[in-house]
Amino acid sequence: MEITIGNNIKALIFDVDGTLADSMPVHLESWKVIGNKYGFQYSREYLERYAGMSGQEIVEIINENNGLQLNPDQIAHEKEEAFLENLDQVEPIIPVVKLLEDYHGRLPIAAGTGGFRRVATRILKAIGVWDKIDVLVGSDDVIHHKPAPDTFLKCAAELGVEPADCLVFEDADLGFRAARKAGMHLMDVRPYYMDDYEIEAVKGSSVR
Fold it and tell me: Would you place residue 120 in the very low, low, confident or very high pLDDT band (cuts 50, 70, 90)?
C-alpha cells in the first residue's frame, strides 16, 4: 500500500471490519443465520448500506422494515455470537495491515469500530495486530455511532492528538462521513484491495 503520510499527521485511526479485517462475508452469513431464525432477510446490499452502524441500530432498522419487535440488544449479541463461531474464517486485509505494521512505533495508532469492543478485540487478535493498537473504541464506548464523529473523536482524545492531526482509514460511507464530521484526514482503503467494479457496486448500495 504505497501511501505517503505527511508530517502534519500525528496519529492513525483504522476502522476494523472491511478495513483491517476481511470480515464482511462472515458478518453477512451471521446476519442470515439470525434472519432465518427470526423471520427477516439480510442481503449484501444491507450489509454495505449499514456498515459502521452498531448492531443495535441495525436491528432497529430491521424491525422498522419488517414490522418486527425484536430486542435490539438481544439480537445484536446473538448475531455477534454467530459471528464469533466463524472467526477462523476472517483474514487480514494485507495492504492495510502492512501499512499499520509499517507505522507501528512511529505514530500512535487507534482502531475505531461500530462493533462491540470484545468482538473487535477478538478480530484484531485473530489478524495479528492487537499488540500494535494503542487505543480501541467500540460501539459500547460511545453513545452516538457512525456517521456521528464520536467514535473517531474518542480515539483522538485517548491518543492525546488533535482531530485535525489524525488520518482515518475507512471502507464505508458512514465511516467516511464520521471522519469528515470529526475534522480528520481520510483515506478510502477500497482501491487498495478491490477492483473498480467492486468499488462501484459498493458505492451503489451505500446510500440510504
Answer: very high
Among 189, 149, 145, 123, which Cα is nearest to 52's? 145
Task: State whether 132 and 178 are in the same domain.
Answer: yes
- Asked whether residue 27 carries a pLDDT value surpassing 90, the answer given is yes
Residue 170: Cβ within 10 Å count: 26
Helix axes of 117-126 and 72-84: crossing angle, nearest 10 degrees = 10
Cβ(175)–Cβ(15) below 8 Å: yes
Do 102 and 34 share a structural domain?
no
The single residue listed with the C-alpha cell 439480510 is 42
- pLDDT of amino acid 194: 66
By annotation, the residues acting in catalysis are 15
Q: Tell me the C-alpha to C-alpha distance, in Å, between residue 184 and each of 12, 88, 141, 163, 169.
A: 10, 33, 20, 5, 10
CATH number of the structural domain spanning residue 103: 3.40.50.1000
Residue 66 lies in a domain: yes
Question: pTM score, two decimals?
Answer: 0.89
Q: Is residue 127 part of a domain?
A: yes
Residue 74 sits in which domain range? 24-88
CB 129 within 8 A of CB 92: yes
